[in-house]
Amino acid sequence: MTTGKMQVSDNTFIAKNFPRLNPATKSGACLSLFLLSTVLLLSTLPSMNVYGAGQTITTFTRTPDGYDSQTGAFRLGSEQTYDSGTAGGGICLTYDYFIFNAQAGEVLQGQVKSGSKTISYLILSPPSQLQLFDQNHCAGKYWGQASSGPTINWTAPSDGRYALVFMVSGFYDAPVYFTQ
């Protein structure tokens, strides 16, 4: 190739202009230039987001009977009772649940309010965990997994179907409020 008065060939340009570089140094220089170019190119690309990351979950495929989406009010409509042989034989747990689909990284947020009792909540992955919860006597092992603060802020660990379960020990017939 000809540039001005100088004749340059691909093989001789580096040898004529950089006579002291040995072949190993030339290879290292080329590799360094390649890596630098790659880093610069990648730094100019927009960062990629996981689909669903940071998105807020607002759609439920199942809500408790009588749920008012404007006020967030509903009543806990399911009960579990002590075994008939247990003293009292009454209601040990009142609960209800919402079902929703989520993608990894999506966020479920909301506020929980109730009357006189503290409402606990937990998130299960239906159908298997929800079925086990329904069959578990008085939610025995689930109390350790439950939260009871006024704020829900949960991020889906993977794509799937989930249940947000609200529960209270004993009988409870007052409204619960879940607002987003």
Number of continuous helical runs: 3
- Portion in strands: 25-35%
What separation lies between the terminal Cα atoms? 69 Å
Compute the average pLDDT: 77
Strand order of the largest sheet: 3-10-6-8
CATH fold node name of the largest domain: Jelly Rolls
Low-confidence stretches: 30-51
Largest sheet: 4 strands, antiparallel
Which structural class is indicated by helix and strand composition? alpha+beta
Question: Architecture of the largest domain, CATH level 2?
Answer: Sandwich
Extended strand count: 10
Principal-axes shape call: globular
- Order of SSEs, N→C? EEHHEEEEEHEEE
Helicity range: 10-25%
Structure description:
By secondary structure, the protein is of the alpha+beta class. The chain folds into two domains: 2-44; 73-179, Jelly Rolls, CATH 2.60.120. The protein has three helices and ten strands. The chain has helices spanning 12-17, 23-44, 128-135, and strands at 2-3, 6-7, 73-74, 78-81, 91-102, 107-113, 120-124, 151-155, 160-169, 176-179. The strands form three sheets. The protein has a four-stranded antiparallel β-sheet with strand order 3-10-6-8, with no helix packed on it. It has a four-stranded antiparallel β-sheet with strand order 4-5-9-7, with helices on one face. The chain starts with a strand and ends with a strand.
